[in-house]
Write a structure and sequence with these properties.
The protein is an all-beta fold. The protein contains no helices and 28 strands.
Length: 326
């Protein structure tokens, strides 16, 4: 595991922000690309050769890509609108992203080189967080009608733009959707509206890919559960849990049916988030501010062997993305 690689966003004192690469053991840290602006949502191509990310270095958020060795930097979108949250198709040939270039935020798709950009949805609402299904057939996304902070649902669309479907269709917020590796299920965070007009704390749910058989996996009304991420073999789900009393954030792992929930990070008064599974599913990487600043931590999925991958005193490291095996 120590020789496997993790890409991450880094803001280091005296340097421009950028995307860095390190081994899981914390050695050989080096920048892939540094430039002006902020960087978010980095994701490896399926073959592990290219990173796609969004950055506002051009003046507004656009989609960029760069090879793992720092070569072939490309600005893939140049529209004056905001483009963000890029995700690869499973075959690495296309990239989905959200954009408000049509007046509303919708799902768009383009070729991996930035050509053939096309609008996939036209729902006249606030659309975000596109996620490509592993079988390449559908894209899941979150839709908030009218930008309503008390209402959002998980939707899917076929990659040709047909078959738009609201899967959750329930009062409250449904978000942070994640496909199972076999594309048969979707995990997501959900919180219901209360009689007083507020929202319950979110739990992690799972449902079939057609929206049926929705079920609460965490069932913890005094904590906030979100950011579910399936293990590569589909047998487990990692997620972030916030204790609503002391606001302590931890990384948890559970079986895909909600059993055997265990705390992986086991820290107090620390914020941990942005989880990435190692390719073989034995370990996790995530962002943690346990040392007073954001850094990348790696740990075995059972919670053992936790160690800082980066230190970056005086800066911040985030958005860990474990490199696929090549």
């Amino acid at each position: 595991m120590k020789k496997e690689q993790i890409a991450f966003v880094s803001d280091r004192a005296g340097q421009q922000s950028g995307i860095w690469l390190t081994t899981a053991g914390g050695g050989d840290q080096k920048p892939i690309y540094q430039g002006p602006g902020r960087y978010e949502s980095i994701q490896w191509s399926p073959d592990g050769q290219t990173l796609v990310f969004d950055s506002d270095g051009s003046g507004n958020f656009d989609i960029w890509s760069v090879n793992a060795d720092g070569s072939n930097l490309r600005q893939l979108t140049t529209d004056p609108a905001s483009d963000g949250n890029p995700v690869w198709s499973p075959d690495g040939q296309q990239i989905a992203f959200f954009s408000n270039r049509g007046g509303n935020f919708d799902v768009w798709v383009m070729n991996a080189d930035g050509t053939a950009q096309r609008q996939l949805t036209d729902l006249h609402e606030l659309v975000s967080h596109p996620v490509w299904s592993p079988d390449g057939q559908r894209i899941a996304f979150t839709l908030s009608p009218g930008g309503n902070s008390l209402q959002s649902d998980v939707w899917t669309v076929q990659v040709d733009g047909s078959g738009v479907q609201n899967l959750t269709n329930s009062p409250g917020q449904n978000f942070d959707q994640a496909w199972s590796p076999d594309s048969r299920q979707i995990a997501f965070a959900s919180q219901s509206q209360t009689p007083a007009g507020g929202l319950t704390f979110p739990d992690v749910y799972a449902m079939n890919a057609d929206g049926t058989n929705g079920r609460n996996l965490t069932q913890h009304p005094q904590s906030s559960q979100r950011e579910p991420v399936w293990s590569p073999d589909g047998r487990r789900i990692a997620f972030q849990s916030t204790n609503t009393v002391d606001k302590d954030d931890d990384v948890f792992v559970m079986d895909a049916d909600g059993k055997h929930i265990r705390n992986v990070s086991q820290t107090e008064e620390v914020n941990e988030r942005q989880i990435s599974w190692a390719p073989g599913g034995r370990a996790l990487a995530y962002t943690s501010n346990a040392n007073g600043h954001d850094a990348i931590v790696a740990a075995n999925a059972d919670g053992s062997g936790s160690a800082n991958v980066t230190q970056n005193i005086g800066g911040a490291d985030s958005w860990a993305a474990w490199r696929p095996r090549r």
